[in-house]
Amino acid sequence: MLKYFSVRNFKNFKEKIEFDFSDVRDYKFNERCAKNGVLHKIIIYGKNASGKTNLGYALFDITYHLVDKSKDYSFYQNYINADSDEKYAEFCYIFDFEGVQLKYEYRKDKVDKLVYESLFLDGLLLFEYDFRTGMGNFEGIRDKVTDTLRFDEKFDISLVRYIVNNTAISRDSPIKKIIDFVSNMLWFRSVGDDVNMGYQINENNVIDYIINQNFVDDFERFLNECGIKEKLICKESPDGKKVLYFNKKRLIPFIEGASSGTTALSKFFVWFHEADIVSFLWIDEFDAFYHYELAEKVVSMLENEVKCQVVLTSHNTNLLSNKIMRPDCYFILLDGKLKSVVNSTERELREGHNLEKLYKSGEFDG
User: Are β-strands 309-313 and 41-46 bridged in parallel, bridged antiparallel, or unpaired?
Assistant: First the structure.
């Protein structure tokens, strides 16, 4: 699990911004939203241009140098904060794997270029390395993990990745677990094209996935349960390609006839089916095209059926309710700071409070 994340000097975050998943309060309702002392289901609010999307980019930056996943760097234009004199961005992650904590820190001046990297195991330094000078400290990694690797060369790839790829360490090793966790992190957004970061599927797009996995009937049932009373059919087009249609007197290709909301649901359907593999899920603007009842249904599905940590970004204040989550799971991004609503007021928030009303009145602006 991810317990903590911070970033500094990245995009619009000139100053350090922290995301503390371990700040769990003792609420006795909606307890499924926290697990083993870590927040598991979270919704982030923030005004337009506050940086909600950039925060997701920052947290998923790790996927670009630790694992071979999507290499679409278009998300990472204007990497360093434009108002800063510093030449690199700084990242920190704390992972907890069955009580073992790994603190991973690094600096970059581009998404694909490390400047510095370090790793701590339960507070003990395993290694640190400066990619500019080629100087490092590897005593901890030799003592605790491996004494067979040579560290007398100059590296241009992540040392974590180098160690895992070149050492016969067990799958239970915390360092191997970092790689496994990052390999299965998934970011996607409901708006725009079928673009995601991290975990990948083999098909080119979500409709091909639905067809090739024989999920057409399941997808139709899912849409019907979400209030979209349509019938679907898969047929072969004249050029031999399988195409998904709305099954009407005149067949309409799904990609041409689907509304923005239906298209967004198709993306959610696909990634929801992959959720057992995903280690950490971030959906940006997850309900941009959803009716408020549908948004609540999707949140309920994620809370009750998805085991991994989930972060959603939204503008939908109807979801800001203790009936859906709890005060320590709602976060507000404001002026470069990320705080749960619990930490945004001196009021003791209880189950009976109307969080949406408090938010709109400015209670959480402090």
Answer: parallel
Q: Are 92 and 25 in contact (CB under 8 A)?
A: no
CATH numbers and ranges of domains, the chain: 2-201+274-360 (3.40.50.300), 210-261 (no CATH)
* Predicted model pTM: 0.95
First to last CA, the chain: 30
Do residues 93 and 2 touch, judged by C-beta distance below 8 A? Answer: yes
- Distance (Å, whole) CA 244 – CA 166: 45
Whether 294 and 264 have beta carbons less than 8 Å apart is answered as no
Report the C-alpha gap between 344 and 167 in whole angstroms: 46
CA–CA separation, 83 vs 89, rounded Å?
A: 13
Amino acid at 293: E
pLDDT tens by residue, 83-128: 999 999 999 999 999 999 999 999 999 999 999 999 999 999 999 9
> Which residues, in sequence order, are CB contacts of 342 under 8 Å at separation 6+?
23, 25, 327, 328, 349
- Strands 2-8 and 17-20, sheet pairing: antiparallel
CB 144 within 8 A of CB 119: no
Q: Hey, how many other C-beta atoms are within 10 angstroms of the C-beta on 81?
A: 17
Show the tokens assigned to 191. Answer: 């708006």
Pairing of strands 100-110, 41-46: unpaired
Mapped onto helix, strand or coil, the DSSP state of residue 20 is strand
